[in-house]
UniProtKB/TrEMBL annotation:
EC number: 2.7.11.1
Record flagged with keyword Kinase: yes
Keywords: ATP-binding, Kinase, Nucleotide-binding, Serine/threonine-protein kinase, Transferase
Record-given protein name: non-specific serine/threonine protein kinase
Annotated source species: Lentzea aerocolonigenes (Lechevalieria aerocolonigenes)
Domain of life, per lineage: Bacteria
InterPro entries (UniProt xref): Kinase-like_dom_sf (IPR011009), Prot_kinase_dom (IPR000719), Protein_kinase_ATP_BS (IPR017441), Ser/Thr_kinase_AS (IPR008271)
Length: 480
């Protein structure tokens, strides 16, 4: 009889439990401690770059580090990390369970009381993670394991982000599953406990209705559904529907909190009438949604951009300058400025290698001390609560769902997208007034193509930047 393959002279591989594009999960026996484990083997496909392999390995290590710092019964325990013969392995708690997605697929929509119990356990795991400074970033049915006795295990912390852990990528791209992403994440904001709660709301709706509430046939239509189509709830009990709708509130500041959701879910599980949840009135859903920067991404205009045909042209298609620039949506045409000249408001400029702004190191809604001037880089950020000159108030990765080796769509296409995007974002700012100037930055072709540069990765984002028209210092963030 053939002896089982032995990893690290300790883990005997007994049977394959699952296989995906990036690896294999084995049932294994830990011969040192004489216990069964799940052994995840990273096995990337042939042809990927060394940098891509490094990112995958780092994700596996991040999963180990993150799960290792969470001591909670509803979080899958990670025992060990092994590197052998160029392969990386993760030894984990072996769970005799099916994931929630498989359960719904095989057995249909779930009962509201049953699902409330599953959601409550998942929420407890998320609370433990959030209290430890960890955001999961990929809560969805396939990452929730349910044992036959109803015990839940939240798994796959491979893309989780800890507040004291550097990000895996430096390009600001969005990582996760589109149909479960919150509007705030799609707008370019960092993942947060509130975005995990949104994803849990989508997961609950999926399980009780038998279908994902926002998943559509294309990414563009999925984004449109997230923004514009409240979930249709036929099977959820009134109390569970209240939780779903509360967690799927567009504005994260008005979204149902974890303690509020726990109170209602506990009442559903125990068969009690839940106490009405008091939350901030959501009297300005459309305004809040626009402020989060998702309107242009989710609307029909964005759908049209997603179906682009790349044209490598470098001309700007912005409208002529308006005599009343601050009261108009019109933008000036891109014209080469002398070195050191300030970039005017409402003018598309290029950033990155060979661009008008040759270097850009801001992410999120960071601030910088220097104004935008022709030929000068923006090397880094300064605290927004200190005097500063400019602030990046929004960013988008318009082709984030396409391969990163997609051909450069052209300055004209990017300028068209950015003109509309930054205008919508500026209109939504709480301090939008005539004293502020703003503009859009698009990557150069060289910057776009350098995305996979191992030393200095390029960026494929478009950026929106604002300042005071009189060039006076800013004090405090201008992003609500």
């Amino acid at each position: 009889m053939q002896q089982p393959r032995l990893i690290a002279n300790r883990y005997a591989l007994l049977a394959e439990l699952g296989r995906g594009a990036m690896g294999v999960v084995w049932r294994a026996q830990d011969q040192l401690l004489n216990r069964a484990v799940a052994l995840k083997e990273l096995h990337p496909p042939h042809g990927i770059s060394g940098q891509e392999r490094q990112v995958l390995e780092e994700r596996m290590l991040r999963e180990a580090r993150t799960a290792g710092r969470l001591n909670h019964p509803a979080v899958v325990t990670v025992y060990d990390v092994v590197r052998e013969n160029g392969r990386t392995y993760l030894a984990m708690e072996l769970i005799d369970a099916q994931d929630l997605a498989t359960i719904v697929q095989r057995h249909g929509p779930r009962d509201s009381v049953w699902m409330a119990n599953i959601a409550l356990q998942t929420l407890n795991a998320l609370e433990a993670a959030h209290q430890a400074g960890v955001v999961h970033r990929d809560v969805k049915p396939s990452n929730i394991m349910v044992r036959p006795d109803g015990v839940v295990k939240l798994t796959d912390f491979g893309i989780a982000q800890a507040v004291d852990d550097p990000r895996l990528t430096t390009n600001g791209g969005i990582v996760g599953s589109p149909a479960y992403m919150s509007p705030d994440r799609l707008s370019g904001w960092e993942a947060s406990p509130a975005s995990d709660l949104w994803a849990l709301g989508v997961t609950i709706a999926h399980a009780v209705e038998g279908i994902s509430p926002f998943e559509r046939t294309s990414t563009a239509s999925t984004l449109h559904a997230i923004m514009n189509e409240p979930p249709v709830l036929h099977r959820a009990s009134p109390a569970l529907a209240e939780v779903i709708r509360g967690l799927l509130t567009l504005d994260p500041n008005r979204r149902m909190t974890a303690p509020q959701a726990k109170a209602v879910l506990t009442a559903v599980v125990q068969g009690h009438a839940p106490v009405p949840v008091r939350r901030k009135k959501n009297t300005a859903v459309k305004i809040a949604a626009a402020a989060l920067g998702v309107a242009i991404l989710a609307g029909a205009a964005f759908a049209g951009y997603q179906a682009f045909k790349p044209k490598n042209t470098t001309t700007n298609n912005s409208a002529p300058a308006s005599s009343q620039e601050q009261n108009s949506d019109q933008w000036t045409e891109a014209a080469q400025l002398p070195i050191g000249a300030p970039l005017p408001s409402r003018r598309i400029a290029t950033f990155g290698r060979g661009g008008d702004v040759p270097g850009w190191n801001l992410t999120g809604t960071e601030c910088a001390k220097d104004f935008l001037t022709q030929g000068s880089p923006v090397p880094g950020s300064v605290p927004c609560d200190k005097p500063h000159s400019i602030q990046q108030f929004s960013a988008a990765t318009p082709l984030w769902d396409k391969p990163k080796d997609t051909a450069y769509p052209g300055t004209k296409w990017l300028a068209d997208f950015t003109t509309k995007y930054c205008t919508e974002q500026f209109k939504a700012l709480p301090q939008n007034n005539q004293t502020l100037g703003f503009t859009g930055l698009v990557p150069t072709e060289q910057e776009w193509k350098a995305y996979n540069d191992a030393a200095t990765p390029g960026r494929q984002e478009v950026l929106c930047v604002l300042w005071k028209q009189d060039r006076a210092p800013l004090a405090g963030t201008l992003v609500g």
